[in-house]
Write a structure and sequence with these properties.
By secondary structure, this protein is mainly alpha-helical. It has one domain. It has a three-stranded mixed beta sheet.
Length: about 220
């Protein structure tokens, strides 16, 4: 059966990395959320200033939750979570600057972001239907269903792979702007980098998990 198979061993490294990444991001965010920046600027003010200086006309809004920060390319809105909006900490400013990076990417037609946005519908379908199709194909001995499921899951995997350069570039841009405009000192930038690096690790873990699961599906399909 799919759920009880030796190939599950392939998922163990990804699971361990995912747990470690979650620990790192929570630990780093918690640590630097307690360190106020010397400039004492609120995260949303830093975000608005970055957007103004980069000539990106995007509003900054508050959204409920913790670490729910995101840039909405469809509605052209940058949303900061309750743990970031109104805060002057190094962590809050780092996260706000990172989301600004996505807004700048969108404004400048950054290709990996455009590609990721374009494949969202297919990726969503792949995430929801791939495993049920594979299972149905295995149960009813219908190889075509298994193959369709694998193809759909490949689209979801491709989405996670494309996400990596998008996130890395946004973090690189954020740190560069924070340094250039002196929103954070050199010592504070070290903390900001730790927060963003920890967040990036979660995407690496997600990509590894997706790739290992795809490999698992392929191995299972070849044995049937």
């Amino acid at each position: 059966m799919y759920f009880y198979d030796w190939t599950m061993i392939l998922l163990i490294p990804a699971m361990l990395l995912s747990l470690y990444a979650q620990y790192k991001v929570k630990s780093a965010f918690s640590r630097y959320s307690g360190v106020r920046s010397a400039q004492n600027m609120k995260a949303e003010d830093v975000a608005r200033d970055i957007l103004m200086r980069t000539e990106v006309d995007v509003p900054v809004e508050r959204v409920r939750g913790t670490l729910t920060d995101h840039y909405d390319p469809k509605n052209k809105v940058l949303r900061l979570s309750e743990a970031v909006y109104g805060q002057t900490s190094i962590a809050a400013i780092a996260v706000a600057a990172h989301e600004c990076g996505h807004a700048v990417q969108d404004a400048r037609d950054y290709f990996p972001l455009k590609l990721r946005n374009a494949i969202v519908p297919v990726s969503s379908i792949g995430s929801n239907l791939s495993i049920p199709l594979v299972l149905a194909g295995l149960i009813f001995s219908f190889p075509a269903l298994v193959n369709i499921g694998i193809i759909l899951y490949s689209a979801a995997v491709f989405f996670t792979v494309v996400t990596l350069p998008v996130e890395f570039d946004a973090s690189y841009m954020a740190l560069r702007i924070l340094k250039k405009r002196s929103y954070l000192s050199q010592d504070e930038l070290t903390g900001a980098k730790k927060v963003l690096d920890a967040a990036a690790l979660t995407y690496v873990a997600a990509t590894l998990a997706a790739l290992m699961n795809l490999l698992r599906l392929i191995l299972i399909s070849r044995r049937r």
